[in-house]
Amino acid sequence: QVQLVESGGGLAQPGGSLTLSCAASGFTFSSNAMSWGRQVTGKRFEWVSGIYSDGSETYYADSVKGRFTISRDNAKNTLYLQMNNLKPEDTGMYYCAKGWGVNGIWGRGTQVAVSS
Description:
Helix content: under 10%
Shape: globular
Strand content: over 45%
Largest sheet: 7 strands, mixed
């Protein structure tokens, strides 16, 4: 079955950086688009970023455009999200998903907190 295990969350200062990873198994990773999403307390779940199976196309929500970078290593079955210039409003639970958009299969998430 599909397994997605996120890691790399933690506490960062405003303006700081974190890199999230998502280890995927149970499906052909290199044939599937992948996504990152987040749940911020009190807000709707947000599709943050997506990447095509071959990395040829990416999507970023306006809220993270220019600060976050999605990438993947198909040889390692791993998805990444490089987050730079973090803001307090980026605080939340971050999830990776098999699929493009909010209707994919989501992992259990990793917590990100941005605070001074």
